Amino acid sequence: MKIYQNTSLKCLRDEGLLTERAFHALTGMGVKTTGQLIGYKGTGWEVQHNIGLGAIMDTDAFFAKLESGQIKYEESVSEDPDAISPEKSEPPVATRESTIKAYESISGLSGIVPSFLYELFPDSEKMESAILNGEYDVLTVQRDLGRMGNIELRKLLQHYLKTVRKYESKEEHPSRTVLRTAKKLIRRLSANLYSFPREVIWQDFLSIPQRQKLQQMFDALASWLSAEARALQRQHLPSFTDVLQLFGMPEALVAEKFGFKPSRATIHEIWRMNQTLEDAFSEEVFSDQDAWLYRRIGHCFPWLSPADRRFVFRFQMDNGSMPLFFIALKLVESCHEKSINIWAYTNGIIDGERHTMKEIGAIFNQTQERPRQLTWEGKGILERTMKRFTRWGDYSSLLASSHISELSPHFRRIQEQERLPQDFKYFCVILTLLDDYEVVRLKDKEAVVRNQLRQYISMIDLREMQNLSVKKYARDTVFDLHALVTHIPADLQEDAVQFLRQWAEANTGIHFGEDGKGIFKQNHVDVGEEAYLILKEHGKPMSLKTLFRKFKRRYPDHKYTDIEQFRVPILIHEHIKAKGHASIYGLDTWDNVYYGNIRDLLRLTMEASPVPVHIDELTEAAQKHFPKTNVVSIMSSMKQCEKTFVPFQGNCYGLATKNYPPEYIVQHPVLRGKRRQKPSPKTKKTTRRRR
Predict the structure, then answer these.
(1) Rounded to whole angstroms, how far apart are CA atoms 166 and 98?
(2) Percent helix, strand, coil in the chain (nearest 5)?
(3) What is the per-residue DSSP string for 86-123?
(4) Cα Rg for the chain, rounded, in angstroms?
(5) Most CB within 10 Å of its CB: which of 67, 225, 273, 321?
(6) pLDDT higher for 685 or 328?
(7) Which among 90, 88, 85 is positioned nearest to 6, based on CA atoms?
(8) What is the 3 state secondary structure string of 24-69?
């Protein structure tokens, strides 16, 4: 086949030349055409855009096909960017071998429904054009055929599509569009094989006597309602056709249909009447084939009660599949085999609590070792029984998952549809019987993980995740779960990230996105870091008092109430420095700020000059960093350090450690006479004695 410079990536994906994973990764980079993709080759694009390993490998496989000549690339522009030119012209849709054989497989049938189908589609060309091109909806209800006729018609269409897929997949150049369309239509038919809109059933599938019978029952039940419920029924549900919209609706949602909230007792009366009418409606809809299916359910699953059989039958009618998790749970709950009962006690299915072998031995009056043996025996019996169920293929998407948690959409959907208990452990226990799964527990939460993934995700990883959620964060911190799974093989890393994501959300309440990134919210105030940010925003040194005032404006409820408490974390911070001894602070990155005292500044100024410095120059240099100082203060400070600073004539000063030119004369201090002190009386006496 041949592709062009403007061929879109969507077209490459639809034709199977580019995987779904690579398509999403490349479109996320902004690549839309084949020319743009080839332009990225050899530029290190995978590193620049942080593309996953799987998408890189899939893209390299596409490049390999280009180099080997399996795909021909033309640098010209195609008129249709969403089309690929095949090297050999593909046969027209109407002449495909697979559709002709599929039409022949149903053309020899006789009966009302096949005859109707032949009138609808006289030849293979029209049937393929109508069904595979979307001109005819396979779920269209043919009112002339009745309910069973429409079911038979849908089965014929399903057989036709399956035959198309069978022969098309054997072709030398199979059409992926035909295969994909047929698969999609088969799924639609399988899910809706027996389900029809209730309004259509009422209007077209029920006879007039049946409708009259149901309307009379509706009138009788309505006459038994209380006055408030009767008024509500007359206003909103005057006839049987109005009740149809409430069928299958939980009691809690019935009140929302009325626009206001009646009393609870009134809603319960309406809901009970609705349940009774729904059961009567289902009995009238049942045909001979329905009755056979109902008896078949009782024969295959004898442990089901009559109410459970009715639920399984309705589930089969509505969904086209069996609620196998519901059936398996009822098997465990109702079985009287001792080994299965012991296994159920071990996993907490009987009373909701997991029992030890010692407790189970006391219940069955046995030793501790015997229940352990019977547990494995009961598990083996259940595994063999459940694997005999032939419809587990309906759960293929569920069983393909590497992990399932309480938040998984698979569990939510099955729990709602099959009326499973709210406790997730029941689902876990049943799932471990079906495949190579293991239950992972931490505190009061559980998840089911395949052993292939479980051997890499240890309890240490989960505890590390738990510790991350309780750490102190002075700022909103972004965390990527991929950092925890670097030790896991590349093909399992994404599954591990999704497992940790769901586990973290269930156990810590922290939401991580599909990309594995989440935000740990600020739960701690780092005083030193906050002071650093305040100084950085201010841009110049600040006094401790001003700094503390701004901090309390940000965090008025902080425990620090004294300014001296605030001083300690500031002094510890690595980027905050004190400016002299005046409680003024700044940042070490500010080059224009001097952090020593006045004497150090004077000493540095004198060291930089080869001659003594005049007092006015020293004052000017000091006032740049200490604006409140003056000449008198500077001279007084230098006089106190006579060993460091030396005065020269002409109001100049230098350092005692430096040698200056001889023209600069040191100004010695003037020695003034001191008043002679009189000797103390004690001293005088001592002098006289010596004489």
Answers:
(1) 8
(2) 60, 10, 35
(3) -SSPPPPGGG-HHHHHHHHHHHT--SHHHHHHHHH--S
(4) 44
(5) 273
(6) 328
(7) 85
(8) HHHHHHCCCEHHHHHHHCCCCHHHHCCCCHHHHHHHHHHHHHHHHC
686 versus 145: the higher-pLDDT residue is 145
Is-contact 461 484, C-beta < 8 A? Answer: yes
Q: Cα(179)–Cα(164) distance, rounded to whole angstroms?
A: 8
* pTM for this model (two decimals): 0.36
Distance of alpha carbon 108 from alpha carbon 159, whole angstroms: 13
Instruction: Give kind and range of the element (H or E) at residue 208.
Output: helix 208-223
For residues 432 and 162, give the distance between their C-alpha atoms in angstroms, rounded to a whole number.
33
Q: What is the pLDDT of residue 90?
A: 41
Answer yes or no: is pLDDT of 95 > 50: no
**CA 275 – CA 246 distance, rounded (Å):** 9
Asked if 570 and 544 touch (Cβ cutoff 8 Å), the reply is yes
**What integer best gives the mean pLDDT of the chain?**
77
Return the closest-CA partner of residue 589 out of 533, 536, 528, 530: 536
Amino acid making up residue 395: Y
- The percent of residues in the chain predicted with pLDDT above 70, rounded, is 82
CB 501 within 8 A of CB 465: no
Torsion of CA 416, 420, 424, 426, to 10 degrees: -160
125-147 pLDDT tens trace: 888 888 888 788 888 888 777 77
Alpha-carbon span 374 to 348, nearest angstrom: 16
Could you tell me which of 512, 515, 552 has the C-alpha nearest to residue 530?
Answer: 552
Whether the CB-CB separation of 323 and 427 falls below 8 Å is answered with no
| Listed range (144-148, 458-462, 560-564) with the worst mean pLDDT | 458-462
Q: Are 192 and 139 in contact (CB under 8 A)?
A: yes
